[in-house]
Amino acid sequence: MAVKEKNPAPYRPRTLARTIKGFAGNYGGRWSKVPNPPQWYSTSVQVCGIYPFVAGSARPTDGAPLGRDILSGAAVCMDHESLFRASVISSPSLFLYGINGIGKSSTAQTILLGQAARGITPGLFNPIKRGEHTALTEALGGKVYEYGPGKAGRFNLLSDGPLGKAAREIGGDVGRQLRELASSKSIELVQLLTRTHRGQPLDDIEDTVLECLVQDARERNRRPSTPHLLEAFQSPSERTLGMLGYATADAFHRRFIRLGETIRSMLSGEMGRLIGGEGDVDFDPGNPGGWCFDTASIPASNTRLLSAAMLASWSSGMDIIDAHWELAIHEQKKAEVALENGELYEPKVRWRGYSTFMDEFWYPLRACEGIVDRVDKLGRTNRSEGVAEMKATHSPKDQVSLRNPEDREKAAGLTERCGVIAMMALTGKDLDTLNEIRSMTSEEINLVKGFNAAPSWHKPKTKTQRGGKPTPPPGAGKVLFKVEGRVGIPVQMVQTDAQSSRHVTDTRYRNQS
């Protein structure tokens, strides 16, 4: 009788060779080919629901999705509004610096879109490049205002504007205060544009004359418009003459003949057509898509006209924000009163907060000395108004190159008080200038210096990307975000196809290619 073996040959223990693909041999589990597993790009907070064995990142993950950390590859999500809510910065403001063609506008749009996804209304100002922000605004359902040669838009410097519309709807003491605010802002805008058109500062007495003329024009006309300013100068009121100390209109005209020439010149030609509107800026405070003031039809070489258009659009945009806030508060109070009476009232207007972007911020400062304070005041929003603000320019030398020493000092102070400084490709001198304003380490300076360094002298093998887009230049989308007292975060920005398809600024080059 045969004896049965306890361990038949196929099942006897054997030593298996261990490899990187498993144990070699029968029943070792070795794979001849290891498939590439699917990959996802997300934050650790999201991915942990799929794969719980993840490590947290030291980079911020609250805010607009920006891209990857250049040094560590970690995801970075943040913006100046989210950093302000997290008490990292004291002001929800960001200043963006960078040379031409490396993606300043794309970076700004990425931040604005991330904020819009949180319900924050975008307000954009498009001063130079045609269609740079209009397509994005239209895609969001926002309102586009176009001003310049061949455009229907005309500014009315004497209009109550959005503040007047809010005043009429609210009424009472609040409405009266809004009308007074509209009158005050109208006076400031007329004074500022007169300075810009003349190209020189005004005397104090000339500022006073303009204030009186604006008041006369607004009181004499049911629907005042900018041309009424000249009528008020030609026929000054008794109040104006008495305030200035002149017995007759002839004496007034002899004293302020130069100011009269400036007003006549400002109301003629292209400038006159730009500011010769008769209506108000129409706005919809309930539109979450926001708005865009487009002045790109004005040639960049026409410094005075473009500066005037930028200043007037900034003023109108800030008035829209103020009017929206007042209307939202008014509607909320109506809802509270209705609730006390046991009724339900749905507010027609709600406040979501705003995020504004002012491109080419320093352009108007070159038009005239001594207007840094006025320009900053006109374009300033702050945390008490629930507005995050973002400004962009090519170089910090735009600040230090102003002719007036006091202007240079004040301009540098604007950057000092900014919550976040975002630096794209810059020259060594630019970085030295910024380092004097906002202290940086030598590693941070060298990192930004190398952003736009080409890897070689040769063209890349792939000359175009998907969709026929040219390969971006060196440094495109690379940004160092710097907050006072903290190490800067270098980010390679990520732009989605939906965004890039609506932001094309090199159409001629693409067609040529």
From TrEMBL:
The keyword ATP-binding applies. GO terms for molecular function: ATP binding. InterPro entries: P-loop_NTPase (IPR027417). This is ATP-binding protein. It comes from Paenarthrobacter ureafaciens. Residues 386-409, 454-477 are annotated as: Disordered. Transmembrane segments: none annotated. Keywords: ATP-binding, Nucleotide-binding, Plasmid. The keyword Oxidoreductase does not apply. Residues 386-397 have a biased composition (Basic and acidic residues).
